[in-house]
Amino acid sequence: MDALRVFAILGVVLGHWLVTAFVSAGPGRLHVTSPLKAMPELAPIPWVFQTLAVFFLVGGYSAAKARRPGEAWASLMRRRLTRFARPLPVLGLVWVPVTAALWWAGFSAGTIRTMVELVLSPLWFLCVYVVLTAFTPMIAAAWERFGLWGAAVLVAATAVIDLGRFALGAPGWTGWATVLTAWVLPFYLGLGWADGGLRRRSGLVLLGGGATTTALLVLFAGYPASMVGVPGAAVSNLSPPTLAAVAFGLAQTGLAVLLHRPLTRWTRHARVRSAVGRFGRSAMTVFLWHQTALMGVTTVTLLTLGSLQGVHSAPGGPEWILTRLPWLAVCAAALTVITVLAGRFERGPSRPRKDLGW
């Protein structure tokens, strides 16, 4: 399960670094765009990196497995929520002087605001995750009572909300109800998986059914092909989550179930197990700070080297991707340094070896 979490986090990190382009617009001014806006034919690429459903799936599984024998749910929730909360103050404390330094360096107020918004953007996920963690006892009770029928109800509810929003003229704000139905679903299935409710046959059905439904919705129902947001797009599959995002998440759930055993065998190798374990102990730090690493590379290179291809240039064709790829290694190095420095705050005091993460 730790390996699935690692792949999910790395997918989000690499996805953000690939689709977030800072474009130099004059001294002290950067604006954000996406290569998907200039090259919509690349929409299938983020399918590999949009792994939010896997996050929530693994979270539900871990929440169930992390409960110690005889432990009250309240104690478990306190342990897990503390793990989420520890790294957050450090992020805020660092960005207060960073914001002042950016202002002193001559960056515009709009550029600084954009950077702060990107730093805060991962927190929406954390807020949803914390709510799901806090309500784990009730979600687990729903699984025990309804099983897979409960998942079907969540899918149907998302479909009804989308129908009202896109076909029946319901106000746009009603679509935000899918934040609940879309992300409870993989968490719910994760709890069910831990309970033995998802097996290989279930994985095949979820993968095949989810992938087929996603394709049909994109090809014939007008849903966007991109599973991440694209600046200027009329509809996003994530803001708020659509039925296409839910179907895509079901396909990812099925794939995760099918890959679990091979990944478990792979992580039995000592070096792999050690690497996965080290990453897992700083997973929240990596998630919270990866945008900071990207912006650090962007601003430092702009101030010291000037505007560079692949870092500050507008994405307009395949050549941008080729010039972008080497800079991902620089971002990874920056994130590694940040993780070494900030990871201690996530780990906190020494804890039992058996910890299934967040």
Verbal overview:
- This protein has 358 residues and is mainly alpha-helical.
- The chain has one domain.
- The chain contains 16 helices and 2 strands.
- The chain has helices at 2-19, 35-38, 46-49, 52-65, 73-85, 88-104, 109-120, 123-134, 136-146, 148-166, 178-194, 200-220, 243-266, 270-281, 283-305, 318-347; strands at residues 21-24, 30-33.
- The protein has a two-stranded antiparallel ribbon with strand order 1-2.
- A hairpin with a 5-residue loop joins strand 1 (21-24) and strand 2 (30-33).
- The longest helix has 30 residues, at 318-347.
- It is globular, with a radius of gyration of 21 Å.
- The mean pLDDT is 89.
In short:
With 358 residues, the protein is mainly alpha-helical. The protein has helices at 2-19, 35-38, 46-49, 52-65, 73-85, 88-104, 109-120, 123-134, 136-146, 148-166, 178-194, 200-220, 243-266, 270-281, 283-305, 318-347; strands spanning 21-24, 30-33.
